Amino acid sequence: MGVEALPRTIAWVAQDGADGVDGAVVRLVEQRELPARLVFWDVRCVEELEDAIASLAVRGAPALGLAGAFGVCLAGVELLSGAGDRRHGSESGFDAASHGAEAFLGALEPLARHLAAVRPTAVNLAWGVEQALGAVRAAVVQGVSARTALAHAIAQAQELAREDEVANRAIGAYGAALLPDGARVLTHCNAGSLACGFYGTALGVVYAAFEQGKLAHVYADETRPVGQGARLTMWELTQAGVPCTLQCDGMAASLMAAGKVDAVVVGADRIAANGDTANKIGTYPLAISAAYHGIPFYVAAPTSTVDASLPDGSGIPIEYRDAREVIDVEGFSPDVFNPSFDVTPAALIAGIVTERGVYEPGEILQALSL
After folding, report:
1. 60 annotated to a ligand binding site
2. Binding residue per annotation — 228?
3. pLDDT digit string, tens, across residues 180-213
4. 143 with 179: CB under 8 angstroms?
5. Is 279 annotated as a binding residue?
6. Which of 161, 169, 348, 353 is the most exposed place for a label (fewest CB within 10 A)?
7. What does the function comment of this entry state (predicted)?
8. What is the pTM of this model?
């Protein structure tokens, strides 16, 4: 038991070899199985990974960034092995036996674009895809072989995983400094180790405060309709030995009114240039309640979640999901409104905690220039 005993959410696993290409799989925690059992899924092709992303077997913005990078590498392994020829040959025209690195890149790019579009709200997915593709492009310019170009992408993706943990621990340290001694923290959805490679963003703040002896208790919203708080956050906190209580989403304001919350800390799927923040549905009303009760509302996220191309939250694409997530009763099919995310205005956010420090929402672009 303890934070360090939590599983690594997503990793690149290959047979022994210098370049990491042979026998490669993306190993991820199958989060749909939690909390009943901890299951690892060895994903062997990019279509499988896309299914895992769409079905929430892997989710959380930073984890999706890693999935994007590893997914590009997995598609590259398929192309080089010939499996990609059979699976995508009519689209790419790539022949692993005779084509070089430039043709490899040309075949890889449309597969990468398709992967990046699987979940549109979380900007990290497209960011991770571009990080891996950029490594291939840079290698191609150097005149290397297709296999060597792929090895560069794998190395870049693995470096992103290492940087993810370093960033999350820094977010935790910066965020913990904002909390009072004996802090009682309310969180929403799951922005913990399961949403990253390891450690977490919002829960990274919790873990750091817990390790420092500053944390008294965590309250976790169940997070309707999929229940990430009930299934994932409570599982994580329990595994880590953090004192925690589950509540229904609609109970949060009453908890605040009772004086049992000192701070609200949530993650983010995309942050606009002005600090407007998209996060799991239900975050916006939580921020409103926190503002009414005079409770600071913090967003914890890596700088890779900031989308400088969007001036404000109105341009953030919102994913809508299946009505059956809300109600699945045989013979009854009411009209259902089921957005997966909402956008919290910057005015309701006390601070955005990044791996580079804590910023006022309107100053978040300064974090990108460091």
Report:
1. yes
2. yes
3. 999 999 999 999 999 999 999 999 999 999 999 9
4. no
5. yes
6. 169
7. Catalyzes the interconversion of methylthioribose-1-phosphate (MTR-1-P) into methylthioribulose-1-phosphate (MTRu-1-P).
8. 0.93
